[in-house]
Design brief:
about 230 residues, alpha+beta, Severin, 2 domains, 5-stranded mixed sheet, actin filament binding, actin-binding, repeat, Twinfilin, cytoskeleton
Length: about 230
């Protein structure tokens, strides 16, 4: 029996359904790459390194990186952060936030925090566009200037307190495995045992046993080799 065809040139057995995964992969790969920073943004990046600006917001518009908001430094990092960042946030729009820290590097000058804000409800294309542009943005600004980087997905994470929690989590030791916990417990027991033994030795060394005069005299005689031995 001859198979029907959709067109004269396309037999039915050539047609296949594209899976959701394939469609998703196609949408990822079809994302237009963001162009490098234009001259205006490069000038803004250079201005930021003078030490007067506290915050700059960078967006992606028409596949181009553009600066869309800024604030001059007024007080400390914490005070400026909580005052300046919230009004700049567009809750449902992804953005890059450059925030100047109060610390200074001997080699590169002022240190900067980069916040990559991609809200939970952002569209897939927007998510992929911003996530894939982070490396390009950092190279354009200068990798040595960015000493801290945070990924945020909620406005509640856009606070100075969240930043310091991030710093503390970086400094904390990584969680131990069950095997590492067992080894640590064994080591602690060994240390405790060593301390107990040493303590007993020190206690014994500190004890005083008084001798009567006959014993002292016998020791003197032994020292002068008048007797062969002394039994206590």
């Amino acid at each position: 029996m001859q198979k029907k065809s959709l067109t004269n040139d396309c037999p039915l057995d050539w047609v296949h359904e594209v899976s959701p995964d394939q469609r998703l992969r196609t949408s990822y790969t079809s994302t237009v790459p963001v162009r490098p920073a234009n001259e205006a943004l490069r000038k803004k990046f250079a201005e930021m390194k003078d030490g007067h600006i506290r915050v700059v917001v960078v967006l992606i518009e028409d596949e181009t990186l553009v600066a869309k908001g800024e604030h001059q430094a007024e007080q400390t990092f914490n005070q400026d952060f909580d005052k300046m960042i919230p009004p700049l946030i567009q809750k449902h729009r992804s953005a890059f936030y450059f925030v100047r820290l109060d610390t200074i590097s001997e080699l590169s000058g002022h240190n900067w925090l980069l916040i990559v804000y991609i809200p939970d409800d952002a569209k897939v294309r927007e998510r992929m566009l911003y996530a894939s542009t982070v490396a390009t943005l950092k190279r354009e600004f200068g990798l040595t200037y960015i000493t801290q980087e945070i990924r945020a997905s909620s406005v509640h994470e856009m606070t100075s307190n969240s930043f310091h929690q991030h710093i503390r989590s970086q400094a904390a030791p990584p969680p131990r495995t069950m095997r590492e916990e067992e080894m640590l417990e064994i080591q602690q027991r060994e240390v405790t045992a060593d301390i107990s033994i040493d303590s007993r030795h020190q206690t014994l060394q500190g004890l005083s046993f008084p001798f009567d005069e006959n014993v002292i005299e016998a020791i003197h005689l032994f020292k002068k080799q008048n007797v062969d031995y002394v039994q206590l």
